[in-house]
Amino acid sequence: MTAVRVFGVCAALAVGLGLFGLITNPQPLRKIIAFNILGSGVFLLFGIVGRHGAASGIGNDPVPQALVITGVVVAFAATALAIALLLQLFQRAGSATLRNGAPRSAGSDPPGG
Amino acid sequence: MSVATIFEIALAAVVLGLGIWTTAVRDTYSATVGFVVYGLLVALIWVRLDAVDVALTEAAISGGLGGVLLLGAAARVRDAGFMAAEAPGKAARVSAAALSMLTAAALTVAVFLLPDSASTLAPAVVAHAWATGLTNPVTNVLMAFRAMDTMLEKVVLLLALVGVWSLARDSAWGGRPGPRHQADPNGVLVFLARLLPPIGMVVGIYIFWTGADHPGGAFQGGAILASMWLLAIMAGLTDTPPVNRRRLRLLLVAGPGLFLVVGLGGLWFGAAFLAYSPALAKPALLLAGTPERSAQQ
Amino acid sequence: MPSPSPTLDATTSTGFLLVLSIVVPVAGVLLAFVLGDRYARLVAFAVIPLGLAVTVAILVVLPQSDGPIVYLLGAWPPPLGIALRADGLSAVMLAATAAVICTVAVFAAADFSVATGNTRAPFAFWILLLATWAALSTIFLAGDLFSLYVALELLTFAAVPLVSLEGRTETLRAAMRYLLFALFGSVLYLLGTALLYALHGTLDVVLLSRGVSAEPAGLIAAALMTTGLLAKTALFPLHLWLPPAHAGAPSAASAILSGLVVKGSFFVIVRLWFNVMPGLPSSTAMQLLAALGAAAIVLGSIVALCQERLKLLIAYSTVAQIGYLFLMFPLALGAGKLESGGALAGGLLQTISHATAKAAMFMSAGSIYATLGQDRIAGLCGIGRRLPISVLAFALGGLALMGLPPGAGYLAKELLLQAAAERGQWWWALALQTGGFFTGAYVVLVLTYAMAPATEPMRVNKTVPRIAELAALALALCSLLLGLVPWSAYLPIPNGDELERLRLGAFLKMLIPLLGGAVLAVLLGRLELPIRGSPSWKAMLAAISPIRRASLASGALVERCDNVLRQWPTACICLLSLAAAFAAAMRIAF
């Protein structure tokens, strides 16, 4: 059981956990947390691929590491945007629910197009 | 089974246990705290995998700044009671669990079937390190070989900021993103906010600069600087900058803008677009990220 | 052309055009951000002509160069560096993008100017528009899977705030759902990328195409990436986010979202199957993909006919038309290589036809919405007299989608039908023809209301500037005339003389979907058609009323299925099940 396999299993299980949380928890904030756990699992997968590719005196292939750093920043930006949307939704609607309103509900016909 | 392997298994088990707790616990605030700790422990896994740059990034950005945003949201959005009724039924939960486990199993199989002779780009990176004169291979990849990704990622950050700003109400547009925070002047938060930023700024700038040759780098250093500024804001010692101030916007654009200008310079004078000496661009390369996160409060 | 290109290490002489294609919109975004609220529109109008010029230059240069235009970023050759490559497919998509962005910019100029005193929306809109362009250019040109990921995320971050631009609560909700589902898709795509890197040590499209074979990890990667991208493209049953998002956005934004944004992730799917992984055992998987497409056509069209609001009808029609796009996969691919270039060309032509026509339809709907203050279909009576240009634009767009010659839609349909006949897959020909009827149904429905005389005096909310209506009309005309362009320079059209196909018989063939569509509209449309009641008409309606009741009931059933599918847990479970199904289909391919 090398480090690659141990942490590979860890990464796979993190992905599974994140998927489950994203699908089942109705609160958007918990979905965002689950998405982050899912993301960390995917990044760990890159990490073990890099570890597997250690060569030339470097302990971990630099290209997957660079990809992960980029990915972490993108995931952070996504989290920030999602949280901003969540806070605005909560502020205006009183509840952050994502439950579908019936798509045909004309509701108030807002001005403009 | 060496000691190292036992330690790794233990670390993985703790991380997964924390992940399960974060997913399953009822209270959202606890889940958020659990996630922050999870992020920090995952950083330990990265250290174990010999990827210290990534460990720094994961801890600073994902666990640190991301955790702060999540904590702030969890404190404000308290409607768990209303939402409990919306939880999916048993059939949905069982199918979701089954499919998630299937995916995890498929990935485990893929991990175990990794080819013995790894296909890796490490030798190529090392062989071409002469081009930039920097010795940190990850920085080389980020700034030179895959510079396009880095430039696009900075634009992504900027765009997320535009998205966040666009959510403001029309009446509030142009002003400060929020009122000055109130904090007990004799409390721990204000004490730390006076004590830590000078030290934090030195550490942040060091990590920013040393990324050329040692683990570290622009994003990690920038995240530390950002969190110091955030700390000062949260303690009420300073205001968030108003959105329409020209200087703030110039600062935010400096990162990707400089990247673009230097890249185009490479197009004109040098071999190609984005062929350049990163040492020139180092000073301004991450200023984009730093003020952005604080402005999101 | 999708073949493993030998030009890997050479930047071609005109390669810098590809760089400009990405850099010009990015520079626009940065400049608009710095200069601030008042100047955002000015910057956009300065940058858009430049971008258009670059696109035209690429279109002119490409046929003359031998093979794709290549540019190696930083002069680093793959696998270490990233290459930009423009082949015929990229050029076609770049052209469509430029056309739509230009016309939408003209359309939105009045809506998003700072004259109204509100500066938040214009600032955001023009930056997001330029960012969408930058992201799409990168998607069409990048030759590296991870760069495609970053570009896809850029596209999502440009699209989501466009949905919530007006700030109403339901649009915030729709934007949130869109963001979360799109992120779900990107993460699956990234997962596949990790597996591909593990197997091959590179993420370059051309290098991967030489190495990919049917190993388990490769199949899992293909399945995950495809389903992740399907979630972003909103193919049935993963369309939960699209109707509220596209209907709730401001009309200029809806035009961009329906016309261009969904095409970005679709293009990555095309690259994936035709360029990166052509060697995979894909026959069953492609049949599955097209089956989903056919289901999308049926479900999207039926639910569209049940709608009361015009923008929701157009949004559901997008759901249906996206299904159309996927019919080309089993016809073009087979036994691990490109079997029918004509089908691929047909698919791409269908894509640009939809992009232009749908954008025109949303723009005309926007003019109608602005004039009336609401967009209920029942309240459209009399608008034909008030806004003839907009209604004409809507009609032309709808006809182009149905396949009126000389539109690109007509050419696409001919090519796909020919490929279906050649490959012996008659069932997809059936799906194509049925799609034509369904498209006709909702176009006829809307036009009947629009052309009917007003029953009560119309309350005008505000006047729409003439140039906005003309922009919609221009784009609709563009869509209708696209069949005349010499596409064989860019797309693998079999015998390159398309004009020969434009015979008078083709025009007559159009009547069939129109008539069929009218029948479907009467049967499935919920609303009472405002046709002046002549006795024979009333008698006919009475005669078919049991059939109409039955079809309305089945329509209601389909709508209930749609509501179930659009619940978050159901859609996510469908997503993962699809991934499993794709992997299994590739494993047991025949």
Strand content of chain A: under 5%
Low-pLDDT residue intervals, each spanning 5 or more residues of chain A:
102-113
CATH topology of chain A: Helix Hairpins
Question: What is the count of structural domains of chain A?
Answer: 1
In percent, how helical is the residue content of chain C? over 70%
Q: Largest interface here, residues on each chain? A: A-B, 83 and 93 residues
Which bin fits the share of residues in helices of chain A?
A: 55-70%
Count of alpha/pi helices of chain C: 22
Distance between the termini of chain C: 27 Å
CA radius of gyration of chain C is: 23 Å
Strand order of the largest sheet of chain C: 1-2
Let me know the number of strands of chain C. Answer: 4
Structural class call of chain A reads: mainly alpha
Tell me which oligomeric state these chains represent: heterotrimer
User: Which sequence of SSEs, written as H and E, runs from N to C of chain A?
Assistant: HHH
Instruction: Give the rounded overall mean pLDDT of chain A.
Output: 84
Structural class of chain C: mainly alpha
Rg of chain A is 20 Å
Query: What's the CATH C level of chain A?
Result: Mainly Alpha
How does the overall form of chain C come out from the CA principal axes?
globular
Write up what this structure looks like:
The complex is a heterotrimer of chains A (113), B (297) and C (590). In chain A, 70% of the residues lie in helices and 0% in strands. Chain A has three helices and no strands. Chain A has one domain: Helix Hairpins (Orthogonal Bundle), CATH 1.10.287. Chain A is mainly α and 113 residues long. Chain B is mostly helical. Chain B folds into three domains: 76 residues; 102 residues, no CATH class; 59 residues. The C terminus of chain B is likely disordered. With 590 residues, chain C is an all-alpha fold. Chain C is built from 22 helices and four strands. In chain C, the strands form two sheets. Chain C has a two-stranded antiparallel sheet. The longest helix of chain C has 32 residues. Chain C is globular, with a radius of gyration of 23 Å. The two termini of chain C are 27 Å apart. Chains in contact: A-B, A-C, B-C.
